[in-house]
Amino acid sequence: MVLLASNKADAPALDMAGEFGIDTLVLSRKAFYESEQIMEVFAAHRVDFIVLAGFLWLIPAYLVRYFQGRMVNIHPALLPDFGGKNMYGAHVHQAVFEAARKRSGMTIHWVNENYDEGNILFQASTALEAGDDPKTIARKVLRLEHAWYPKVIEQLLKTKAPGES
Is 79 in the same domain as 92? Predict the structure, then answer.
């Protein structure tokens, strides 16, 4: 990892990155949506692949185009269901609960210019029991995310040369 960027100055990941000597950047909305400024930072750090996790802003078109095939995201549900704007965190798990689904899970997908609509790379699911509430669903899905996201990212980086689309 060459850089950890966050839109939240109090994100625990920033402290963890600092402990490992990884450069960090706190993004302002203005800087993120102005291509010149963020692209200069990415170029200075030689960023060639982006891994999103818990990032809720819509990715601007200039970044999607530049990192086409080199930007992935994780979503706490089995897409295409329960995706899109405002479908994150507890909202997703509440929706799954209200729909009385028998399974939930996580999806790793390529990023495009729409929320949660990029091509799916990987999904993992877990059974939901009659007594599972949104918090239980969230814990089950988080276990899947922690188990699978690093493995899928590692595989992507091994099979995809930097700059390759």
Answer: yes
Choice among 75, 91, 93, 146 that is catalytic = 75
Amino acid at 42: F
Fill in the DSSP letter of residue 74: E
Q: At what angle do helices 134-159 and 89-98 cross, to 10 degrees?
A: 120
**Tens-digit pLDDT profile for the chain (165 aa)?**
789 999 999 999 999 999 999 999 999 998 888 777 889 999 999 999 999 998 889 999 999 999 999 999 999 999 999 999 999 999 999 999 999 999 999 999 999 999 999 999 999 999 999 999 999 999 999 999 999 999 999 999 988 655 444
Domain CATH number, residue 99: 3.40.50.170
The single-letter code of the amino acid at 144 is: L
- Let me know whether 107 and 72 are in one domain: yes
Q: Identify whether 93 is a catalytic site residue.
A: no
- Give the domain extent around 62: 50-165
